[in-house]
UniProtKB/TrEMBL annotation:
Gene Ontology terms: cellular component: vacuolar membrane
Subcellular location: Vacuole membrane
Lineage: Eukaryota, Viridiplantae, Streptophyta, Embryophyta, Tracheophyta
Coiled coil regions, renumbered to chain: none
Annotated gene: LOC120263026
Protein name, entry field: Aquaporin TIP3-1-like
Species whose genome carries this gene: Dioscorea cayennensis subsp. rotundata (White Guinea yam)
Length: 255
């Protein structure tokens, strides 16, 4: 049986109730994640601390780990719990969702991040979202490589726990992707903020109007996601309909 290939989808898929519910789930889940993640950074600023200290970095990593765990958990039954354009790209590459649905997910994820950043801006009137940028003295191409490596780890973990049914985890898969998110922030946060998620970076960048090095947080995660996808799909996980799942089921052809 041949492996799945990229599926374009049909225009009427965009208005299918399952697609609408999944898209709304991605919007809300991404908003939850970005609000808590970026909010933790602003909270540190309010306490006159920053993420460049040991305690500050630990707080931000923990906040992101917990928030991403919750965001994936609340969306996984409806949309597959992507909460990240890089993860959605991996599902497109393997044909688990169509391009049509992926575009809707990307729009929802970006809008969710913008909505969360805007709510932070409105609720904390004297502060605005900080966003991410490459640390002084750290090369932008080093940051791209770092983003590739960290996103590779995130997407690989996503495949191993939430896609591959041979996983030993049961109903706690979101914890794994949450933990790897927090761990990567501890590893790379002081160098470039550890984006791994274009939506997470885009929302604060737009509302805070901070676009410095913004392209790094798109190029790196998309390359890292593609590499992890190809390696896990074609080298690690044998093609067997018993050992992998669709995320989420495709719309029937006769719809």
């Amino acid at each position: 049986m041949p492996r799945r290939s990229i599926i374009l989808g049909r225009t009427n898929e965009a208005v299918h109730p399952d697609t609408v519910r999944a898209t709304v789930a991605e919007f809300i889940a991404t908003a939850i994640f970005v609000f808590a993640g970026e909010g933790s950074v602003l909270s540190l600023g309010k306490m006159e601390m920053d993420t460049w200290t040991e305690s500050g970095l630990l707080v931000v990593a923990l906040a992101h780990a917990l928030a991403f765990t919750v965001a994936v958990a609340v969306a996984m039954n409806l949309s597959g719990g992507h909460v990240n354009p890089a993860v959605t790209l991996s599902m497109v590459i393997t044909g688990r969702i169509s391009v049509v649905r992926a575009v809707l997910y990307w729009v929802a994820q970006l809008l969710g991040a913008v909505a969360a950043s805007l709510l932070l801006r409105l609720s904390i009137a004297d502060m605005r979202p900080v966003g991410l940028w490459v640390a002084p003295g750290f090369g932008v191409w080093n940051a791209v490589l770092l983003e590739i490596i960290m996103t590779f780890g995130l997407v690989y973990t996503f495949f191993a726990t939430m896609i591959d049914l041979r996983s030993s985890l049961s109903n706690i898969e979101p914890l794994a992707v949450g933990f790897i998110t927090g761990a990567n922030i501890l590893a790379g946060g002081v160098f470039d903020g550890a984006g791994m998620n274009p939506a997470r970076v885009f929302g604060p960048a737009l509302i805070g109007w901070q676009w410095k090095h913004h392209w790094v947080y798109w190029l790196g995660p998309f390359i890292g996601s593609a590499l992890a996808t190809l390696i896990y799909e074609f080298l690690v996980m044998p093609f067997d309909t018993v050992t992998y799942t669709l995320q989420p089921p495709l719309i029937p052809e006769d719809y």
